[in-house]
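SUBJECT: A protein chain and its fold
Encoding: whole-number codes for local backbone shapes
RECORD BEGINS BELOW THIS LINE
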Amino acid sequence: MAADKGKQTTSAADVARDWQLEGGVGFLLRLLEARYDGLYQSMTRQSDITPRQFGVLMALYQLGPLTPSVLAERISCDRNTLSEMLKRMVARRLVSKKDNPHDRRSLQVQITAKGEEALLAVIPAAAELQNIMLAPLRKEDRAHFLKCLLAIAKAPPPDSPADT
């Protein structure tokens, strides 16, 4: 057993010595997110709607009123994070909550006129940002790149080590 432990340490050390940060998914995603966030702030020239809030407003604009659970699923956000975000957005009157006409036990969230105005004001810059972010790729590679990112983002979690 002790020999196995030493072998793992050596193996991990070998991997660490050869690791290229620029080839690591986590490192690259962090760089990509930092680039996106910086460009989003400079190009939209506003601080009213964060990129995550943009997703909430876009989903509500396109789909109409949604329950928080459906909205969370649609924007791939956990319910607790969404709940906190919605509190801030309701306080700023970007969204409102109303009784769900299909289920009296739940609420629906909907975009307000102020939220729609704020969203539509950001849309041109957001569309241009998409073009800038994808500009380093050949036009024929852009759709494939986005498809690959989506596949990675939506992949089910791997089986836990205990299950193997």
